[in-house]
């Protein structure tokens, strides 16, 4: 067991930290207020290789390990969770899913531009009546021989309007239940595909979250991922990796809030001395630092198992469950340490607190993570 990061991993961490500080920090408060997607910054993330970190270099990716990805996600998320969720979806769900299960033709056509950020991807599973219960797909993909006819609605889709490549999960044969579900690659601009309104959210307000509507969209058979009926298994397998991304995002939100609280506690004075010298604040900082380190180690373990091609489902669920709770708890305490200033936007921590909540909901709620974990324990 080696807890030392390699030189390459440290270099990735440093590059992500510098990018976050120089490119994402300026304007992050304004983007949150105006719900502006960080388009220029995301383009630069693609140019720097942050949108296809784990993709094989032969498909224009970085060929990096998952621990490097966790490190980069943490640094980006410290500053702008709206940018990091775009990075997580593109890496963990879309690129990984196509590289792992797609055909060579699909990889050449879609994976290569996705890995460089030339195109952005979206993962479309949730529906108005199918969030945690992913088996209840109402979106249908009717088999018409050489193509599918896609009809339905998807909700809360990250990168909903910015994406140009969409992985859409739909029901083909309802009698077969979850074995009658397929995943189709849908392109923006296909006739009958409409992007709905942007959601007005509590947090990650810069993130491009939309509903999608499909009306008789003709999707070529060659755009199906895997064999007929593989869609549900594809979605669950892909979400396992996605949980590492969101756990890393939660870790970054927590560590960003902690760093701000620590710095502020050394500057703010009360009763004649910095508040960091008061035991009440010291104990808060100690709890925050300990929980963040525990979350980081859970993320690293899940990432390591994934890199070793071992079963990482339980580890990923544990990392997301715990890191998302740490993000919520830490950001609340960071606001408390800042006192009245914590309630003011210019100090950043109130935004981090709002951003933290979603990490307990998307990529499977905390309750779903407990189901995943308990099933593994009771095998």
Automatic annotation (TrEMBL):
Q: Which residues form the Acyl-CoA dehydrogenase/oxidase C-terminal domain?
A: 231-377
Question: Know the name of this protein?
Answer: Cyclohex-1-ene-1-carbonyl-CoA dehydrogenase
Assigned keywords, A-Z:
FAD, Flavoprotein, Oxidoreductase
- Residues annotated as domain Acyl-CoA oxidase/dehydrogenase middle: 122-217
Needed co-factor(s):
FAD
What GO molecular function annotation could you give as one example from this UniProt entry? flavin adenine dinucleotide binding
The protein's Enzyme Commission number? 1.3.8.10
UniProt record similarity statement: Belongs to the acyl-CoA dehydrogenase family.
The segment(s) forming the Acyl-CoA dehydrogenase/oxidase N-terminal domain are: 6-118
